[in-house]
């Protein structure tokens, strides 16, 4: 089944009523988008207006409320709440209603709240208090043309890569995180802002119609339209773009887009019991919705209760958005990673969570100020809820998530073609025979690896050790000359080698490492005092030992710093001499470039992914 995304999940959403021009728009302060606003007290009508957006995580809100208006037998009804759920896909209008007192609630992604931070955070009355994380997205993507293979390729010397992205929407945060993973900024690329999330004025159509656009940020339906599928490449047929492929996806970058609810500070202080009931009711609803969704995905048998929920979503979002229940409505829920109660604890309370509240707030405010949505930093507050009390209210088990997780949560990386499956990479160098990696020297690299593991929760962090091939090549040449397999001509520094095979002589290029490895593996060069086969194996063992030593050092660093990490993501691999930076070094300085450990964020087999009980 297709993994439909945030769908028109801000399709009108963050089209954002951001009426910012035609096909491409300029950056603008968020205050300029909303226009002048006057803070008004929250209106007391007996029923609280609560916005929702077109997203699978909101299905739990519908379930808890019994529909758009609270029913007496619903979770919220039984707790004494009276809610009117209102369409909130127009986030600018949400902000206007929030400041104007029509609702105390805001519903959006964390980065969207940050983009509006100067508008909603200056006045202490409207300063947001984030009360709930609903989910992480698994259905948003950056699609690129043929020449861009990894996030590292987003920065090219002499020419800026052009990336189409909807102004003010959820993908601004995705693009910010993707650039940060490669240690780039918005100055390293040219961002072409478009008006809408999807449709004629969206990023996908800009990518399709303008060959100068190198990449675009899109939702799942548009991604499929451009590429043919998550692991496919466009052919140019049936509307796809030739060579278009997914550069990065929230399937792998699973902790980039956080969906949240926030309320006004003045209202929160006066209505804390209401907020506790709202959060508990949502978590109780999610505790029902998630098993219903997962059960159907596994069995393909649609239970009456799940059919009723999907039909409710179809009615609320509209048949034009969700034409079918089993594909479209169910697919919308599949793109959502519910975090449930353990996720609240991890997000709001774990100081070592590198994608928790504090970390997300810092990076989101960086985005808002550096990208021109705000002139100053105006933060949010966490609600500081008692989750043991919330667990009792919600009727769910209280389970404090682990900081260090062993052996769960990630599948096998696709090592058949490591280059094709690499999302982003970076390297650390070391000295000959080094197997010790201290925090003092490599702390910054450890931090980057742990941050990558946290943000790319659906990917493997492959720690790939490499060795220099010089000694192996010297022994291959020596043995080959002694046995008469090789013939050498020329002078030092300009030697040429010829190999005798089957009575014929052909030139041998020592820089073709794959060929050298295959020759050594035949055993034809064995028998002399120095064995190139044994040396090559020793280099492989050393490279794996280095990779494992780095993994152990990172794990020890995470434990000491109390940083949350799933250690099963960190997978050491030995490459030996097979992939040198310089295949035939001419100096120790060049040889040292081959002595390295490479960190690669690598796509994993989606069929092997396991969704943990928590998602920190």
UniProtKB/TrEMBL annotation:
Q: Which UniProt keywords apply?
A: Signal
Query: Quick check: keyword Cell inner membrane in the entry?
Result: no
Q: Which residues form the signal peptide?
A: 1-26
User: Record's superkingdom?
Assistant: Bacteria
InterPro entries from the entry? OmpA-like_sf (IPR036737)
Descriptive protein name: SsuA/THI5-like domain-containing protein
